[in-house]
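Figure caption, in words: inputs first, then the predicted bound structure.
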Amino acid sequence: MTGMLDGKSALITGAGSGIGRAAALAFVREGAWVAAADRNLDAAKATVAAIEAMGGEAVAIACDVTDDAQVAAMVAAAVNAFGGLDCAFNNAGVAPYQLNSAGVLTADLEEASWLGLIDINLHGVWRCLRHEVVQMRKQGGGAVVNTASILGLIGSGGAAAYVASKHAVVGLTKAAAIDHAPENIRVNAVCPGYIETPMTEETVRRRGEALMARVPMARMGRPEEIAEAVVWMCSDRAGFVTGSCWQVDGGYTAR
Ligand SMILES: NC(=O)c1ccc[n+]([C@@H]2O[C@H](COP(=O)([O-])OP(=O)(O)OC[C@H]3O[C@@H](n4cnc5c(N)ncnc54)[C@H](O)[C@@H]3O)[C@@H](O)[C@H]2O)c1
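Bound structure (nicotinamide-adenine-dinucleotide present):
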């Protein structure tokens, strides 16, 4: 049996929790070596321990994606650990409530909340992407997946900075895909719907029933269901797929 990512090295941000951790485990299952990066090093180490328990190989890296020097060092550490970088999953992100802005109307947002969220969810993806692409171009190619959201495709109330950041990740993904296609580097995005992770616990408590009423499949997604799409987009099976933004949302955006 061969895995979809046999012999490939992969870097995942936000790998200490939720979608990032599920992706790290799925990448290893498919034969990849994983550099698990997170601003919470203990969480990244717990992901590495889970990988080692399944017989895989991984390293934990501390990195806050708001700091370009840390991002550069993260990419260098991943390359150093595995001799190159074939795949990258730029997934670290925060929800509005983590910057005190859940439910705040656009005109009432504090500038610090706006800037803080955009710095992580948009600028963080761009910082990672550019350092990864510089490495991949040296190697003759690679595959990048960015985490956007269904809120990168449609609007939602009380979440302007988040919605703007995720729409921008979709735009960045398309622009980077066009720029780097001649260098054999594919850039795609995944757009998750509502997924069971620590990020959504609070939202589900407050208005889970109302949200589920809008999902055709009438349930939350599991982080593993996002991971499967990311694995595929990073694999050679997706060789002609670039600049695409793939909803994995139980039908939410089909309405
Ligand atoms: N859960 C959902 O329903 C959902 C839906 C759509 C999109 N997303 C997106 O998926 C991604 C992962 O979310 P999740 O649900 O797994 O959340 P999560 O909170 O479980 O995990 C996010 C991880 O990112 C890390 N992180 C946060 N800020 C960071 C920073 N500045 N630098 C480095 N690491 C940082 C956290 O420490 C955490 O380990 C996010 O980009 C989120 O916006 C989630």
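The two ends are 39 Å apart (CA to CA).
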